[in-house]
């Protein structure tokens, strides 16, 4: 795998998704990542620490620069728990759980984020304002209701299908209501 190409394509995707999602500083962005899928394999069967480090590095740096929190979803072996900064868990008063992610229990994204975060902790549930799903990892459960699909500028990263979500307020009030 060409890691420089992967880095450039990840940057293109994250810039596009951030623009389309209109996420703001202080909000939460969730990442689901299957390095196996990026690597051309089947989710959970061809994990790559290098791929995780490249993708998470680009996304974490970009979000940090904008003051946006990153939450990295773990695999089903961790019940889709999320790795976040302790500061965010404390700010939101979220209970933490005890686990240290591994390549095959958490995934390459969580392992990379664990190395990069200042004080990483795991939580079971969050409510993010937007997110990026690389490899069909099903991040929708972590994005605030009502979720709106975003079509990224690139629909594939390596061998992985790429989708994204943002949220919008619920539209209530029936036929007499007006919206922006």
Automatic annotation (TrEMBL):
Pfam families named among the record's database cross-references: DUF436
InterPro entries per the UniProt record, alphabetical: Antibiotic_NAT-like, DUF436
Domain of life of the source: Bacteria
NCBIfam families, per the entry: TIGR01440 family protein
Protein family according to the UniProt entry: Belongs to the UPF0340 family.
Protein name per UniProt: UPF0340 protein D7I46_12770
Lineage: Bacteria, Bacillati, Bacillota, Bacilli, Lactobacillales
């Amino acid at each position: 795998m060409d890691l420089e190409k992967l880095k450039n394509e990840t940057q293109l995707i994250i810039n596009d998704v951030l623009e389309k999602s209109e996420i703001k500083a202080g909000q939460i962005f969730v990442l689901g990542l299957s390095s196996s899928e990026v690597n051309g394999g089947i989710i959970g069967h061809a994990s790559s620490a290098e791929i995780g480090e490249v993708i998470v590095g680009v996304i974490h740096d970009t979000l940090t620069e904008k003051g946006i929190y990153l939450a990295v979803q773990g695999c089903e072996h961790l019940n889709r728990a999320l790795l976040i900064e302790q500061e965010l868990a404390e700010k939101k008063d979220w209970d933490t759980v005890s686990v240290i992610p591994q390549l095959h229990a958490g995934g390459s994204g969580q392992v990379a984020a664990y190395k990069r975060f200042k004080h990483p902790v795991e939580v079971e549930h969050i409510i993010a304002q937007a997110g990026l799903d690389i490899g069909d990892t099903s991040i929708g459960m972590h994005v605030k209701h009502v979720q709106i699909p975003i079509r990224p500028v690139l629909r594939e990263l390596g061998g992985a299908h790429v989708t994204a979500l943002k949220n919008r307020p619920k539209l209530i009030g029936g036929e007499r209501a007006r919206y922006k």
